[in-house]
Amino acid sequence: MNAKKKILIVDDEQDVLAYFEAVFQDSGYDTVLARDGFEGFELAKSEKPDLITLDITMPEQSGIKTYYQFKKHSALKEIPVIIITAADESYKNFLNELNGLSTPEVFFSKPIDPEELLKVVADILFDNNI
């Protein structure tokens, strides 16, 4: 990697944040952590990550609303988003129905295989055609 890529991890569970932080940092990525959608949106604006992982079911502000904010914001809409959630499959249809928004790059259900996640992240960030 030429320059370290930055990944924003948005999840309300502290153990999930710590796990993904370790997985990504052990693979040479910089990480920024957000515990809810509000914090994730603010950090995305200030940190300008190269990629965002986003949980769907979070208190305060859902991942769906946060995703909508990301994709409607001119400076954030091109940042790839990977949905990582324990929610059922119905959220996929809802995200697909959001008018004028691109769908997330990838959906993963928890628990997730870290090697599979890292491969998808590398493919997205380094344009290896996932």
How is this structure best described in words?
- The chain is α/β, with parallel strands linked by helices and 130 residues long.
- The chain has a domain at 6-46 and 68-87 and 97-123: Rossmann fold, CATH 3.40.50.
- It contains 5 helices and 5 strands.
- Strands 2-1-3-4-5 form a 5-stranded parallel β-sheet, with helices on both faces.
- Helix 2 (37-47) packs parallel to helix 3.
- The protein is globular, with a radius of gyration of 13 Å.
- The chain starts with 5 loop residues before the first strand and ends in a 5-residue tail after the last helix.
- The relative contact order is 0.16.
- The mean pLDDT is 86.
Per-chain topology:
Elements: E1 6-10, H1 14-26, E2 30-34, H2 37-47, E3 51-54, H3 63-72, E4 81-85, H4 90-96, E5 106-109, H5 114-125
Parallel strand pairs: 1-2, 1-3, 3-4, 4-5
Helix pairs in contact: 2-3
What proportion of the residues is helical, as a percent range? 40-55%
State the fourth-level CATH superfamily of the domain at 6-46 and 68-87 and 97-123. Answer: Response regulator
Number of helices: 5
CATH class of the domain at 6-46 and 68-87 and 97-123: Alpha Beta
Given as residue ranges, the uncertain stretches (5+ residues, pLDDT < 50) are none
Overall residue-averaged pLDDT value: 86
